[in-house]
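Sequence and structure are kept together here, with a separate record for every protein. A complete record is shown below as an example:
=====
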Amino acid sequence: MGWAVLAYVLASIGIGLWAARRVRTSQDFLLASRRLPLLWSVSLLFSTWFGAETILGASETFARGGLLAVIEDPFGSALCLLLVGVWLARPFYRLPVRTFGDFYAMHFGPWTERLATALMIFSYFGWIAAQLVALGQALSYFSGASLTLTIPLATLLLLSYTFWGGLWSVAAVDLAQNVVIIVGLMLLVFFLPESWWNEVHRLPEGFLRFTPPAEGHRWAEYIAAWMIIGLGSLPQQDMYQRVAAARSETTAVRAGIVAAVLYLTIGLLPLIGGMCVRLYHPEWLKGESAVSPILYLVERYLPAWGQWLFWGALISAIMSSASGGLLAPAALLSENLFARWHRFAGLWKARVSLLLVSLACALLALYEQNIYELVAESSIFSLVTLFWPMVVGLHAPRWRSPVGAIGSMLFGLAVYYLAKAAHTALPPMLYGFFAGLVAYGIGVLVERVLTFRSR
């Protein structure tokens, strides 16, 4: 089976290299020439998060903690895609910019752009590292090698086609791989014990509860879980990049809505696998293991050819999410931080930036290997820093303020980490989120007072 999986990976790389023939300029590399049709756009948006955290991380978290433990993903992720379709796709698509860092420059000035760009780049590291950990786990499972060896190998596999084809390669590989993802996950559910739906009553009380009991701070934690990816991933370069790559505004809107429905539907399949682990093999959840229990489930119940398809689905999801994720901070690094570096052409600046981001994420993946935690921290970081300036920049032109935007980013981030260190009763991200709003308002007042006095 190892050879079959290797052949599948090589085929995916071949598709990416085939699509790379379209790349001639940095716009082709970063935005796929803004020519993606609906099916390609849906596939690209669906693949934004449908990777390690959904198949491996969320399934294990669900098996351990029940439905309330996985509100963040897949439910919060589906919410984010829906909000993109109904709220942000049109204003994003109309922006006359190449990166989301340019958006902050256009509305708040160059200093805000530099800070926002640095924050966005940093926020991606945990997300991409989670995908590298998962792909490293898959390679480790087949080869028996340690993660210390397989994580660098996983990074090289992703770079093999992304380095040459950028978003064109990512979109082409996603389109082919998403078919395998859906078939592989449906196959897993099909081969699980036939009576699993009749055994639901054996689950612990409240395991399938979708809303929390009205006690303590449970509702605050519940709302925070919806917000982590649901709102935290909106003010991000990859979201703007995937929307702007569509061939029309209408295509971008439809793609967001369809991708949300698809994500929620397919995202429930790994949870069924996690529930079967809890029902039939709770011993797999004892202690810590470098291998997700859902992989043992696959080995136990699927025939050899079915295991090959599932591994294809898993590797597809990881490669799709990770390769697209790598491009987002690379675009910001190339177009915003290296914009004045004229020694290399724009296309090669983008490629060099991709190499630097890949190296940083690989090092983080070697240091921290908890997939679900890596993803959560990444989205929280952007929520407490970038959300409020994005909302004001898009919808409240009278209240745009560089002082307010910078204050919101810095104060929201500081309050979040202070609350986290203090182990507050409420989720720390809520303190950071609302502190960012308060800081923005104070910044607006300060700027207007100073402007009035200078007249």
The chain has a mean pLDDT of 89. The longest helix spans residues 147-191. DSSP finds 17 helices and no strands in the chain.
